[in-house]
Amino acid sequence: MSRKNKRESWEEEEEIIWVSRSEMKRDMEALQLLGEKLVELKPSVLKKFPLDETLFDAIIDAQRFEKEAKRRQFQLIGKMMRTRDPEPIQAALDLVNNKHNQLTVEFQKLEKLRDKIIAEGDIAIDEVMALYPTADRQKLRQLGRQAKKEQENNKPPKMFREIFQYLKFLKAQSGAQEE
Predict the structure, then answer these.
(1) Which of 51, 43, 55, 50 is nearest to 80 (CA)?
(2) Is 114 exposed, middle or buried (0-12, 13-18, 19+ CB in 10 A)?
(3) Going by C-beta distance under 8 Å and a sequence separation of 6 or more, which residues neighbour residue 134?
(4) DSSP string spanning 59-127?
(5) Residue 179: is its pLDDT beyond 50?
(6) Range with top average pLDDT, 93-97, 142-146, 173-177
(7) Is the domain 94-178 a CATH 3.40.920.10 member?
(8) Which of 62, 71, 98, 147 fits a disulfide with 159 by CB distance 3.0 to 4.6 angstroms?
(9) What is the DSSP secondary structure assignment for residue 4, as one 8-state letter?
C-alpha cells in the first residue's frame, strides 16, 4: 500500500529560495539610495531617465523638501522603486556619472597641454598643431608668451586661462567635425 503524500519519481521538487529579512532590508536601502542619487540630479537630466510620471514627480518633490519631509520622501521613492526595474535607471545614472568623469579627464589633458605650451613653447605648439590642424599657431605663440610673462611678473593668470579656453574651443571644434 502506498501513501497519498508520497511524491512520484517523475515530479521535480521546486527549489525555494529563502531571503532573510536583513537581505530584504539591504535591498530596500539600496533602492532608496538609488532614489537619493536621482534627487541630486537636475530635472533636465532626469527627463532623459527611464522614469514613469509618478516616480519623476516624487523625485522633483523631494528636491523641494527639507529635513524630515525629505527623509520621508526618500522612503516613498524607495518604496516606489521596489515595484520598478532598477537596472535601466542604474544604467542611465552610471552613464551620467561616467560622462562627468570623462569630461574631467579631458579637462586635465587640456590643462597639461596648456602648461606644456607655457613651459616649452614651439615644441608643445607643434604637438597642438598635430592634434588640432585648424589651430592658429601665431595665436598660440602669442598667448604662450603672454602667459609666461604673467607668471614671471606674478600677475593674475588671464592669458593662462585664455590658452585653456582656446584649447577647449579647438577640442569642441574637432569633436564637431568628427561627427
Answers:
(1) 55
(2) buried
(3) 170, 173, 174
(4) HHHHHH--HHHHHHHHHHHHHHHHTS-HHHHHHHHHHHHHHHHHHHHHHHHHHHHHHHHHHHTHHHHHH
(5) no
(6) 142-146
(7) no
(8) 147
(9) S
Per-residue cell: 10: 517523475
Instruction: Indicate the fold that domain 21-84 takes in CATH.
Output: Diphtheria Toxin Repressor; domain 2 (1.10.60)
Q: Which amino acid is at 72?
A: R
Length of the chain: 179
The CA dihedral of 55, 90, 18, 26, to the nearest 10 degrees, is -80
For 88, residues 6+ apart whose C-beta sits below 8 A from its C-beta are 50
Neighbour-count burial of 127, counting CB atoms closer than 10 A to its CB (0-12 exposed, 13-18 middle, 19+ buried): middle
Q: 43, 54 in Cβ contact below 8 A? A: no
Q: How far apart are CA 110 and CA 118, in angstroms?
A: 12
C-alpha cell at 45: 537630466
